[in-house]
Amino acid sequence: MDIVPYLLLATLEGLVQASVLMLTALGLSLVFGVMRVVNVSHGEFFMLGAVAAWVCANLIPGPPYVPFIAALLIAPVFVGALAWAADWAILKRINYNPEATIVSTIGLMYIIQQMTLITFGPDAQAVEAPFYHTVRFPWFGYSGYKFFIIAVAIVLVGGLLYLLRHSKVGLYMRATQFDKETAQNFGIPVTKVYSGVFAVGAMLAAIGGVLVVPSQQAHYLMGHDPLLLSFVVVIVGGLGSIPGTIAAAILIGMSDGLLSVFFSPTLAKIFSTLLVALVLVFRPQGLFGKAGR
Amino acid sequence: MAEVVLLKTKGLTRHFGGLKAVENVDFQIKEGEIRAIIGPNGAGKSTFVNLLSGRIKSTSGSVEFAGEDISRMPAHKRVRKGIAYTFQITNIYGSMSVLENICVAVHNRLRPSLLSRNHVSEDDIEAEAAEAAKTVGLGDRLEEVAGTLAYGHQRLLEVAMGLALQPKLLILDEPTQGLSDSEIANFKEVVREVNKTTTVLLIEHNMDVVMTLAEQITVMERGTVLAEGTPDAIMNNAAVQAAYLGASA
Amino acid sequence: MSIHNKKLFLLCLATLAGLFVLQFLLSDYLVLAFTRILILAVFAMGYNVLMGYTGLVSLGHAMFFGAGVYGAGLSSYYLGVSLPVAFLAGILAAIALSFLIGLLALRTQTVSFMIVTLMFSQAAFLLILYFSEFTGGDQGLTLPTSARSFSLFGLEVDMTSDVARYNLALTVFGVVLLGLFAFTQGPVGRLLVAVRENEDRTRMLGFDTYAIKLLAFTVSGGISGVAGALYGLMFGYIGSAFAEFKISIEALLFTLVGGPGTLLGPLVGTGLMTLLIDRLSGVTTAYLIVIGALLIVVTLWFPTGILGTLRDRWLPWLK
């Protein structure tokens, strides 16, 4: 057999994975970049997105694309509201202290996970893809839905970048990221920016969860791997750097597919965790970042 | 008079990105001196003394202390060589008592190794710490929690911690900032007392303190040394008047 | 040598005496529960050296507990060494690992430090799973009956006896408690607190703060290993669950509840939490919700814990 079809397939799979990862990691990166806090419950927001898609598929009648589109709208709104509430009830009250935030989002992670277990159950649940269309290549056919995932990710990330660079909200966010006190003095509603950023970060993860559920299954523990991979992406790309995060997401999403061909998943995870730790120890500015002062 | 150079810098430089915070400074201080460094805000005074104490690493140039090149030495080793530094912003252990604060400093001198057990007991450490507290006038506040002290007393505690190290060179970064007139008068006495055994280098904005205490003054501007001399000479230096005294008067 | 903080010293002795008497008052079930509490309290006390006294929040202490479990368990299982030797092997493994991880992790601070310790610990956990043919993986290994008793200095100890286990746990707990009293209430303890309160200041008083933190890290990891080794050998079972993320979180929670930076806080926190979790596990499988909620509640309203609050309000010597 020719090597070309194999490479093409691996590239496509890598791109799909990179797209979802880009959305999820961007949420984590945005929160860290602007608020300087690490949200350990980020993976649970991803999982909630997937579970919401399953709930929609079961409650909303009609052809599969109807509940899917509904999920794409409802899941981020629901998860965003949840994140906003968590910000209001917890993070704001501990004044976004970085260490206390990690501890309390670990608590949030357990709560979301176990509540999902109680209501949704321990079994993995499949969701039908919104449409079946096969893109034909000379060697094989490929799911059109996966191209759709890539397209949605590109549109969302593009839109987000545009907003960050060109809108007033984006200006507020950049100003807050640069210097919280000064931003406050200029009349920027920093607390609102924080709540908004935390909610948007969670929404991005939720959309990632909705997109992934037709090709994976929804399960209450499915948030672990996206959280770990997002950590890898955000830290390799340089903490808080949006372009670095996007570049790292593509690199890691693409290579993860290839790595899993050669190594067992456990070994790949050992490699990822050690990579995060060692990058933080030896190159805290990230692999792509400029050398620090 | 046999004058021994205690500290000497050659071409000492520190850049932050494009900003030349300290540029090519040659500086000397003699043993037993009280030296003041003055200059407008942003002249690089704090960065300069931080280069001496080792809190900031130099971009280039050398620092020599008591005849030894210490340019590459980490901060804590420089302290052990005899360079003590007191912070510009009061920097004490808020939840510890006054005595415990000073004990940490004495501990370093009397029992430098972390794990070895030598014969210095806690009682010896506490006795010396109490002594240092007395020197700055905090002798009757040993058990008070440092964080609850009045600001002026916190500054004195800061000095006491520096003293407890029995340094060869005591660097005071804007020690009288925020003190009342009577506290400043007391502070001047403390520095004179300290100077009997220690060389003092202070960054100071209060010209009255500078003129009464300093034997030599170094004027910095934009990261370089603008002038150096006795208080009288500095007062009469045209360049200094133009750059600094004139501007703030 | 004079003893600093005599009140605390007397309270420690009274606590040990009380714990000794307890075994005659409690039901068999509770004696077993308190055996586990004593061992886990040793773990939390080790954690507290780093988190409470030195101010470094680790999210990876499961790896040091696990190093104790596996260092002891594997040397007993494969090499057939006697239990005291296996116990020492577990402690040494934990000390070596914590020294090594400390060297690396202490180059980072606050959030990075938390993530680095978490990642190293996850890597260690995954390594246990990856080499499951050797380690037993998540199924674990049960130690042979030959490893269920030992004799030391002419004393025969049977690890299947509840009374023997309780008193062994209490002995180890007592040694660690008094050792930590000396360590934390003396000059070295003052340096740990100095680093926690103001690291830059401590450096400018001439201390190599990296070395102080490394000492605290190694002692902390070593004591966690003591607890792990004891747990594995005492109950004759080793498994990857001992190195899970949840184990690190339990140490954190027990310490937070009891009072970080207080000598007896971890015992109080471990006791309350373990009894609560045991009670809840009967009611619902989702007891992790309670752990999660408590993490948030303690962070929000109770950051100094039970003994920390007592210390700040009424008993300044309780540290």
Please provide a written account of the structure:
The complex is a heterotrimer of chains A (293), B (249) and C (319). Chain A has 293 residues and is mostly helical. Chain A has one domain. Helices cover 74% and strands 2% of the residues of chain A. Chain A has a two-stranded antiparallel sheet. In chain A, helix 2 (42-59) packs parallel to helix 4 and helix 9 (224-236) crosses helix 10 (242-262). Chain A is globular and about 60 Å long. Chain A starts with a helix and ends in an 11-residue tail after the last helix. Chain B has a domain at 1-76 and 205-249: Rossmann fold, CATH 3.40.50.300. Chain B is globular and about 55 Å long. The model of chain B has no long low-confidence stretch (mean pLDDT 84). With 319 residues, chain C is mainly alpha-helical. In chain C, 74% of the residues lie in helices and 4% in strands. Chain C has a two-stranded antiparallel ribbon. Chain C is globular. The two termini of chain C are 20 Å apart. Chains A and C meet through helix 4, helix 9 and helix 11 of A and helix 5, helix 11 and helix 13 of C.
- Relevant CATH superfamily of the domain at 1-76 and 205-249 in chain B: P-loop containing nucleotide triphosphate hydrolases
Integer count of domains of chain A: 1
What would the average pLDDT of chain A be, to the nearest integer? Answer: 86
What's the average pLDDT of chain B? 84
Structural class of chain A, by secondary structure, is: mainly alpha
Low-pLDDT residue spans of chain A = none
What is the CA-based Rg of chain A, rounded?
A: 19 Å
